[in-house]
Amino acid sequence: MRVYLDNAATTAMDDRVIEAMIPFMKEHYGNPSSVHSHGREVRTAIERSRKKVAELLNATPAEIFFTSGGTEADNTALVCGLQSHGIKHAISSPIEHHAVLSTLQNCAKKGMTELSLLNVSGKGELDLDQLKQLLEKHPNSLVSVMHANNEIGNLNDIETIGALAKEYGAFFHSDTVQTMGHYVHDVKKMDIDALVGSAHKFHGPKGSGFAFVRKDKKISPFIYGGGQERNMRGGTENVCGIVGIAKALELAYEDMSGHQRHIELLKSRMIGQLKQAIPGVEFNGLSADLDQSLYTVLNVSLPPSEENSGMLLFNLDLHGISASGGSACSSGATVGSHVLRALNAQPGRDSVRFSFSRYNTAEEIDYTVEKLKEMYAVGV
Questions:
Q1: Which of 80, 107, 240, 329 is catalytic?
Q2: Is 377 exposed, middle or buried (0-12, 13-18, 19+ CB in 10 A)?
Q3: 171 vs 96, 102, 120, 168, CA distance in Å?
Q4: In terms of DSSP bridges, do strands 194-198 and 114-117 run parallel, antiparallel, or are they unpaired?
Q5: Cβ neighbours of residue 260 under 8 Å, at least 6 residues apart?
Q6: 3-class SS at 345?
């Protein structure tokens, strides 16, 4: 049996998304910047996709800019947010995705900004009292806090964070890559200046993303060139990717509550079975709390085991189970998870992130738990 439980890294493309993209790989191949009919029909598709994404987020089309993915969207919002608004102080957390943390650290290294990182509890909870103190000391800062952590699944209170940012005149950016397509984002009801999406996290194509930037917080381009994306991103547009991200987001919104119910049942099933099957099992962050964590992520801390130490993911793979030890973007690195390190996770315990999608089944959960039980020799 082959089981894919690494959906926080990437998801399988929906067949309906592929069908929507194919015509723009075959028949509609014009350059959208061309004024002839081949170009105009492709330009129309891009603007139709922009309008659809804007409609789903309750934004205006002028606030949506397509990118190569979430990383570029985050970099654009952060670097250009600092530069465009003359911001000299940034606030973030040590458990952000590297697309945010490394970007801000690099900006600080170059002298563009001073960077303050919030304190984090052993469960991954951010110190919002400290955030308020920092904003009192440094009003008009840039605040970047993710909606949900990609490794431990913690949901952050972006409503409270956004309200604080607004009170102190800060530019608030949130990395919403893990929650886009899984939660409703209504930007008219949110105190947020920039958020991002990446198609391959919600059954769309890789290499396609977008940034929302509120119209009264305009920023300069990150990539210069031919003035594409309303002079906000140079480079010929990834037309089939743009069509794909709009279609994938549309499908995600069609039955979001149904998808959530299905996935939450799978997550609850795994939590309950693991507690019964493996004495001493623990869960990192708030990932086992269904009310305070992303419903697609469960980060499991397993008891010390000589046989599995450092080999847990390899042994799971031998059984046909794909999972992750942390962020997929650093899976080839030898260093451990910076998120678990910030939580002071016990070094003698192996951790594994299981992440679910609407395509997973109860049978796959049962099989995975059974193999973990065998690996940890429980009852054998």
A1: 329
A2: exposed
A3: 17, 19, 22, 9
A4: unpaired
A5: 182, 295
A6: coil
Q: Active site includes 80?
A: no
User: CB neighbours of 102 closer than 8 A, spacing ≥ 6?
Assistant: none
The CA-atom distances, in angstroms, between 294 and each of 84, 130, 148, 243 are: 33, 24, 6, 27
Give dist(CA 354, CA 364) in Å, integer.
Answer: 12
**Both ends of the chain: CA-CA distance in Å?**
22
* Kind of pairing between the strands at 114-117 and 321-322: unpaired
Yes or no: say if 263 and 296 are a contact pair by the CB < 8 Å rule: yes
Structure tokens at 26: 């075959």
Block residue for tokens 């069908």 = 19
Q: Is the pTM of this model over 0.90?
A: yes
From first to last of its 380 residues, the chain has per-residue pLDDT tens of: 999 999 999 999 999 999 999 999 999 999 999 999 999 999 999 999 999 999 999 999 999 999 999 999 999 999 999 999 999 999 999 999 999 999 999 999 999 999 999 999 999 999 999 999 999 999 999 999 999 999 999 999 999 999 999 999 999 999 999 999 999 999 999 999 999 999 999 999 999 999 999 999 999 999 999 999 999 999 999 999 999 999 999 999 999 999 999 999 999 999 999 999 999 999 999 999 999 999 999 999 999 888 888 889 999 999 999 999 855 454 454 467 999 999 987 877 899 999 999 999 999 999 999 999 999 875 43
